[in-house]
């Protein structure tokens, strides 16, 4: 009897063990495969982007003129203060005019003498014209009288030209500013002897408002830019002009905007670059000639640009740019992309991606093409993500 009870107890224990093992198996079956990893994505949307490029350059005066004497003599006075603004036509130096006044007086006297000789020559020519009509004189006498009249008229013309020349030379004794602008230091003082059109300038005037900024750009970039305008990838603004902004050498911005005026018609064979000239207002004279600056040129407007953060683009073993996107079935796909340039912290993508693509920016580690992922908006806090 006792043996039968022991046998029943053993069967009950084995049955309970079997049920327990079965329950564990069912719980393991309920666990299933691990959940898909979460990845942060952005959905690409076309946008209007103003494209700019930053180039180094130097400032150049809008106008520059070297002051030189056009007649020789002794400098009597210097009539300006070095480093100040002068206006066009303002007298800068005075050369001793005594000899030039005398030359003008002599020329005027010669003119008066020529004018005095004209009257008798004219009267004689008129009388001889009447006498030759009645054959009272020879043809030779009449010809001589007419030639004498023309000679007297030519003498007056020459005398008038001499007077004009003497008057101009007298005016040149007052050396005036050819342009308005800031004048530099003077190379001569009162008492110095100067000569006409001498090699050394007396002073230099520079017009600094407005002021030019000359920058250089490679010919290949210029060619690419023209192609983008030709095929409609880039468009100018409503005014059709390229705006330019400046940054000083220390990185601080210049407060006024300028404009691109023109580019050189030839390429520098030594550097392979083209010079671009921009123009900036400079009323406060913050920009001085020869300063190193950085010019930010607005190249055009990309109407349907696709921008991808730089962290979303990597390089494969061949060095080609690639991006991981979440495709159909929430599976990871690798796309070869063509990037044109950087725009801030983004890449401007020309090919390989399209609007609506979900580019993976977060959770890139250990991802493989074809693996299933759970896409969530990049940058959204965990508390705000939908389950």
Outline the fold blueprint:
Blueprint: H1 2-31, E1 38-43, E2 47-67, E3 73-78, E4 85-86, E5 91-95, H2 98-133, H3 139-172, E6 174-176, E7 181-183, E8 193-194, E9 203-218, H4 219-230, E10 243-248, E11 258-263, E12 273-280, E13 292-309, E14 314-315, E15 321-326, E16 332-336, E17 338-343, E18 346-351, E19 358-362, E20 374-377
Parallel strand pairs: 1-20
Antiparallel strand pairs: 1-19, 2-9, 2-13, 3-5, 3-8, 4-7, 5-6, 7-9, 9-12, 10-11, 10-13, 11-12, 13-18, 14-15, 15-16, 15-19, 17-18
**First-last Cα distance:** 62 Å
Give the CATH superfamily of the largest domain.
Efflux pump adaptor protein, beta barrel domain
Helix content: 25-40%
Please work out how many helical segments DSSP would assign: 4
Q: Identify low-pLDDT runs.
A: 10-29
Percent strand equals 35-45%
CATH class category of the largest domain: Mainly Beta
Shape: elongated
List the secondary-structure elements in sequence, H or E.
HEEEEEHHEEEEHEEEEEEEEEEE
- CATH topology assignment of the largest domain: Elongation Factor Tu (Ef-tu), domain 3
- Number of strand segments: 20
- Largest β-sheet summary: 6 strands, mixed
How many separate structural domains?
A: 4
CA radius of gyration is 46 Å
Q: Which structural category do the helix and sheet elements fall into?
A: alpha+beta
The CATH architecture category of the largest domain equals Beta Barrel
* Average of pLDDT: 85
């Amino acid at each position: 009897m006792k043996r039968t009870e022991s046998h029943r107890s053993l069967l009950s224990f084995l049955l309970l063990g079997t049920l327990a093992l079965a329950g564990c198996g069912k719980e393991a079956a309920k666990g299933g495969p691990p959940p898909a990893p979460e990845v942060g994505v952005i959905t690409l949307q076309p946008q209007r982007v103003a494209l700019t490029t930053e180039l180094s350059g130097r400032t150049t005066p809008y106008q520059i003129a070297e002051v030189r004497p056009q007649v020789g003599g002794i400098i009597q006075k210097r009539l300006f203060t070095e480093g100040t603004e002068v206006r066009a036509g303002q007298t800068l130096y005075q050369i001793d005019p005594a000899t030039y006044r005398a030359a003008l007086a002599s020329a005027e006297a010669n003119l008066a003498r020529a004018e005095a000789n004209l009257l008798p020559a004219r009267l004689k020519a008129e009388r001889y014209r009447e006498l030759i009509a009645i054959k009272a004189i020879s043809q030779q006498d009449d010809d001589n009288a007419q030639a004498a009249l023309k000679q007297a008229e030519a003498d007056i013309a020459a005398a008038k030209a001499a007077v004009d020349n003497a008057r101009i030379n007298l005016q040149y004794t007052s050396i005036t500013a050819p342009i308005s602008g800031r004048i530099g230091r003077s190379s001569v003082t009162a008492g110095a002897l100067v000569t006409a059109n001498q090699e050394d300038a007396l002073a230099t005037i520079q017009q600094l408002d407005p002021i030019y900024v000359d920058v250089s750009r490679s010919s290949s970039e210029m060619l690419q830019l023209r192609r983008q305008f030709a095929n409609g990838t880039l468009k100018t603004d409503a005014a059709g002009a390229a705006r330019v902004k400046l940054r000083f050498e220390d990185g601080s911005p210049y407060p006024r905007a300028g404009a691109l005026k023109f580019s050189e018609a030839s390429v520098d064979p030594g550097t392979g670059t083209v010079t671009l000239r921009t123009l900036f207002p400079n009323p406060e004279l913050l920009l001085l000639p020869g300063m190193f600056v950085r010019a930010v040129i607005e190249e055009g407007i990309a109407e349907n640009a696709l921008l991808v953060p730089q962290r979303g683009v990597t390089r494969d073993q061949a060095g080609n740019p690639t991006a991981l996107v979440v495709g159909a079935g929430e599976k990871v796909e690798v796309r070869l992309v063509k990037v044109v340039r950087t725009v801030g912290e983004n890449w401007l993508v020309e090919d390989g991606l399209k609007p609506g693509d979900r580019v993976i920016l977060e959770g890139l580690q250990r991802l493989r093409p074809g693996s299933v992922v759970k896409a969530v908006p990049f940058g959204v806090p965990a508390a705000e993500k939908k389950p």
